[in-house]
Design brief:
By secondary structure, the chain is mostly helical. It has helices at residues 34-43, 46-63, 103-139, 141-155, 159-170, 175-201, 205-212, 217-229, 231-253, 265-273, 280-308. Residues 111-301 form the ABC transmembrane type-1 domain.
């Protein structure tokens, strides 16, 4: 009687059966978005790193200037005419101005008013212009027409010329009045950019889908349209911050911006311009700090623009 031959291959000797390995945890895929891609690009951009470092230092300088002057604030009564126009030395790095005041101390404490004007003006311009542009672009119709015609009135007034006219009528000025005047004249640029961005985004598919799901106008505006339309506004605002600091210096140089006994770089440049040939260091240091500040904010704005603009990738 023949042995029964079993079908199929015999199991090999030894325990070589594959063991069931636990499933490996898969890392969640990174969700690509405009902001995450922009942040990754900014971290790799040396221009942004340099600009951000300079801006951070300048903000610290404006907030706590006492850290850089041994805790002593600038005092006009401490100026000595015997030190007038003395050159830089190891004890006084920037030398003395016409009134015998230490230029280094004045430059450090002058950063406060200049940075305050730039940051405050940019914040108010962005807030007013973005909200009105969002309203005009979203509503359209008669609201858009009225706001657009109203904006054209301010577009016909140059920033510096209008600032000179208004500040001369107000008389004595300070950092807050200069910021308000430049806000009144500067918001139309942000308005137009925001309005155009909203018009380009409000008919996209994700907005139509939100409407179909029953989302209200407020939710669509602030949860869907605003985050996608704000990028060009941020870029222009970052670049404009340096422009506003330069505008404040120009108004103070003309004697209609920040007034003594307050300190600003524009006032220092104005006082030093008449003695440039006799003592160039009096004009050199505040002018150099002002130029570096404006350059730092422009570098920061350019880097943000390159990161947020898909056409430049």
């Amino acid at each position: 009687m023949s042995e029964t031959i079993t079908k199929g291959a015999e199991a090999p000797s030894g325990d070589n059966t594959p063991k069931s390995s636990p499933e490996k945890k898969q890392k969640p895929e990174r969700v690509a978005s405009l902001w995450s891609d922009a942040l990754r690009d900014l971290r790799r951009n040396p221009i942004f790193i340099i600009g951000a470092a300079l801006v951070s230092f300048l903000i610290i300088l404006a907030v706590v200037p006492g850290w850089f002057t041994d805790g002593s604030p600038f005092d006009n009564n401490a100026c000595d005419l015997a030190d007038s126009l003395k050159r830089p030395s190891a004890e006084h790095w920037f030398g003395f101005d016409v009134q015998g005041c230490d230029i280094y101390t004045r430059t450090v404490w002058g950063a406060r008013n200049s940075i305050i004007v730039g940051v405050l003006t940019t914040s108010m311009v962005t807030l007013v212009g973005a909200l009105l542009g969002l309203l005009a672009g979203w509503k359209g119709g008669i609201v858009d027409s009225i706001l657009s015609r109203f904006t054209e009135i301010f577009f016909s007034i140059p920033l510096l010329l209008g600032g000179m006219l208004i500040m001369s009528m107000l008389g004595k000025g300070n950092a807050w009045t200069v910021s308000v005047v430049m806000t009144v004249l500067g918001w139309p640029q942000i308005f137009r950019i925001m309005r155009a961005s909203v018009l380009a985004n409000k008919n996209n598919d994700y907005v139509m889908a939100a409407r179909a799901l029953g989302a209200g106008a407020g939710r669509i505006t602030f949860r869907h349209i605003l985050p996608n339309a704000i990028a060009p506004v941020i870029v222009v605002s970052a670049i404009s911050l340096g422009v506003y600091i330069g505008a404040e210096a120009a108004l103070s140089y003309l004697g209609i911006g920040v007034q003594p006994p307050e300190i600003s770089w524009g006032l220092m440049i104005s006082d030093a311009s008449v003695r440039f040939l006799d003592a160039p260091h009096v004009l050199l240091f505040p002018s150099a700090v002002l130029s570096v500040t404006v350059l730092a904010f422009i570098m920061l704005g350019d880097a943000v623009r390159d990161a947020l603009d898909p056409k430049l990738r």
